[in-house]
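re the bet — no i am not wrong, look at it urself. input seq straight from the record:
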Amino acid sequence: MSSPGSSFVQIKHEDLLFYENCGGGSFGSVYRALWISQNKEVAVKKLLKIDKEAEILSVLSHKNIIQFYGAVLESPNYGIVTEYANGGSLYEFLSSEQSEQIDMKQIMTWAIQIAKGMHYLHAEAPIKVIHRDLKSRNVVMTTDRVLKICDFGASKFLSHTTHMTVVGTFPWMAPEVIQSLPVSETCDTYSYGVVLWEMLTREVPFKGFEGLQVAWLVVEKQERLTIPTSCPASFAELMKKCWQADPKERPHFKQVQQTLETMANDSRLPDQCNSFLHHKDQWRCEIESTLERLRKLERELYSKEKELEERERRLKLWEERLMQRSNMSPSPTSLLMDSNISPVSTSIYYTALSDCGYPNWSFTKAQRARRPKEQDRQTTEPRRKGVAVPYVSGVSEKLQRIFRQHRIPVYHKPVNTLRQKLVHPKDKTPSHKQSNLV
């Protein structure tokens, strides 16, 4: 790699007159400024150091890619200087009242412009690039409403498959990027589908959800943004293709561009699309309904996580208590050598039962359940040396592992009364297994 400044124009910091902050890109803040010597309005992205973004921008040249002018290499005032798009970002436009006036023709024009810019990055640029952070905030608009892709701070030079770390913004990120898996250029296709959804709905993707919540919904639950039922079928189909879980199933931008051009020639589409755009009040409830369902799903997840954390805490506490009580006696098995089960061992055992899902089981009940009736003493089998483990699906196996770890012998107790009392609420009937030493 060439040294910084060897392949692009170096601009002096004092040659720039800074105005207001106009947004934040990846890894830096962006300011509107005047390039004094050239009498040109520019955008300056301030950085802690000059990184690969300047190198990437220096070799790119396309009408739908932000134009790069040079970089400031004076410490600590590092920055990159690009053209200033005074129309703001696409995100800002879609959030404004102006967006209510856009029609299908404008959306189609913008969709094709973004697709052309991305196709250039992937297939025509001197160094092929994966953007990795394509979103409406990183698409800016000129005075004459031409869209330009910007902010290449998260970008990577493209080899056939590149391993990525987590970068970008979760609602726009492909599942493989979220998981830091090897990615190809079609991770940008996924993000493009989200931008297209933004233009059609003028809504914020996964509104109200935190980044990690979105990551869980997209990766674990395979959730995607809601496409209203009244959305024109051709747009809906294109977005679904862009959001395929398998990256190989997503179209490349050349295919996206061709699809859009075919759609532009459909004489019926403008009326369908404009009707959809102007009746937002009729389909917005579909998006809200999905968001509410996802919020409920997230609340259930949170509740389950808390429950698991509490169970882990109780199990850890019980194991510590078992270790302490076992160490107090001469040996782990000596507690159980008597014909009557030791109160200490019984207490430990039934504490374990309580922690494994039997909160109402008490030490007193345990003693009663284990004491045979007087008339049955002659028929009751000889008492074994060890701890009786009720054969309840899932629970007994866990208890056996724990007692084996502490070298305490266990066996299945065949007394029906005990098994019935210890049946787990989720098990409708107790398991009737023969008594076997474990």
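see?? The longest helix spans residues 280-328. told u. also The chain is about 40% helix and 10% strand. so pay up
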